[in-house]
Amino acid sequence: MNNIPKVKVGIVAVSRDCFPESLSVNRRKALTEAYAAKYDAENIYECPICIVESEIHMQQALEDVKKAGCNALAVYLGNFGPEISETLLAKYFDGPVMFLAAAEESGKDLVQGRGDAYCGMLNASYNLKLRGVKAYIPEYPVGTAQECADMIEEFLPIARAVIGLAGLKLISFGPRPLNFLACNAPIKQLYNLGVEIEENSELDLFEAFHKHDGDARIPSVMEDMAAELGAGNKKPEILAKLAQYELTLLDWVQEHKGSRPYVAIAGKCWPAFQTQFGFVPCYVNSRLTGRGIPVSCEVDIYGALSEFIGTCISQDAVTLLDINNSVPKDLYDEEIKGKYPYRQNETFMGFHCGNTCSIKLTSCEMKYQLIMARTLPEEVTQGTLEGDLVPGPITFYRLQSTADNILRGYIAQGEVLPEATHSFGGVGIFAIPEMNRFYRHVLIEKNFPHHGAVAFGHYGKAMYEVFKYIGVDTGEIGFNQPKGMRYPTENPFA
């Protein structure tokens, strides 16, 4: 993944001047040693220049972590802490910040060894709110050295996503296809998140594509594609055009990213794309997404944004699927019922034409887009990557701006079942606990579009914290609520 940030967390210890400074010094040292013993020590930096007790110390610490290349900050309350200086640390640091606090070590040392950070964390949170400063505070932010090390490790994917969004440019091509108003994309919330957007015409892309006619790099890309597809290379005659298109997108990214280090693409794929380009872009989209450059379908800007967030959190390929069709009763009865703890209405099929990376398919074949081929010549719809999704845990999620500029999201954890779909496209049988209620009272009730992003693993905890950090109101984050926990719109008599 070369399109996501690498996080380096600066650990800055703070101390209230009427408490022993040695408490913060020793506890900071124990924390960094505990982290290095369990995790990659390259992820952290112990700020040695001072223990922050004053605003002057705060400025010195900020300068030190900046010189050390830190792009995230852990403010560590080794004792009660100075509420003003420590919150100014968060205010003036250019990047995501977390607060955590030291627990007392022993009942035998509760006079000079008592730090009162449990109390100090309350003052810190109060002052953060007063100043309007964002910070991540773990579920239970007070712990031993090892517990605090674990908290920092859990902060890394959150920080990656926040840093990534602050440096992201979203490149789109063309307006959304007709009858796809569901993927509406008010761009004001992108700017609120710090994301830049570059909107382009399909004609610009078409011109750039033809400027790559005869590109000397095409044969090597074709060779790489053939190696990836293996026995699934069923359409070798289309590889030259697909390779040319891939080079077009990659060159566009390099020429247009400007000051932004990270990029995601919202691409056009129908209706005129097939007849003018002579193929569908699904396979190329899958390859770029597998490299950490998400490419959404149907100019789904917030779909691409969601994919990028999932890529940062998981450090793995994600995909974007239609929340597509129900699982038929006969298939459920024959292959799912009794084998898995899910009702039929807790299962559904997630599908897209062929944009899922090959590493997330049990096997793959290059095919043509069956739905489009019902009204177009088959030869211009070639270029899908098809197969059943790999089974295992997943997180289904999306971040979306509503038409009236409210930032809203959802997160649901479940799994892809290891059962054949007997269908076409990139497709899987998904199972999410209480999916039927989640579908009605979150996806439908909150007017979410049919596209959902999929991360291959359970990342709901980090995803939820990212949504909170970037400003999504917790009342606007939907999730698959367990049985007995009623949705506000759920009929209590149903």
Pick out its properties.
494 residues, alpha/beta, Rossmann fold, five-stranded parallel β-sheet, 18 strands
Structure described in brief:
With 494 residues, this protein is an alpha/beta fold. The chain has helices at 21-38, 55-67, 83-92, 117-131, 145-166, 188-192, 202-210, 218-229, 239-256, 272-277, 282-290, 301-314, 329-335, 370-373, 435-444, 460-469, and strands at 9-14, 44-46, 72-77, 97-102, 142-143, 168-173, 196-200, 262-266, 295-296, 318-325, 347-352, 365-368, 382-388, 392-401, 407-416, 426-431, 451-455, 477-479.
Tell me what you see in this structure.
The protein contains 16 helices and 18 strands. The chain is α/β, with parallel strands linked by helices. It folds into two domains: 9-159, 3-Layer(aba) Sandwich (Rossmann fold), CATH 3.40.50; 167-479, no CATH class. α3 (83-92) links the parallel β3 and β4 (97-102). α1 (21-38) packs across α5, α2 packs parallel to α3 (83-92) and α5 (145-166) packs across α16. It is globular, with a radius of gyration of 25 Å.
- What topology, given as strand order, has the largest sheet? 10-11-16-15-14-17
What's the story with the biggest beta sheet? 6 strands, antiparallel, barrel
Q: What number of structural domains do the residues give?
A: 2
Give the count of helical stretches.
16
Distance between the termini: 47 Å
Gross morphology is globular
Share in helix: 25-40%
Query: Could you give the count of β-strands?
Result: 18
- Beta-strand residue percentage: 15-25%
Radius of gyration based on Cα positions:
25 Å
Low-confidence stretches: none
Mean pLDDT: 94
Helix/strand-derived category reads alpha/beta
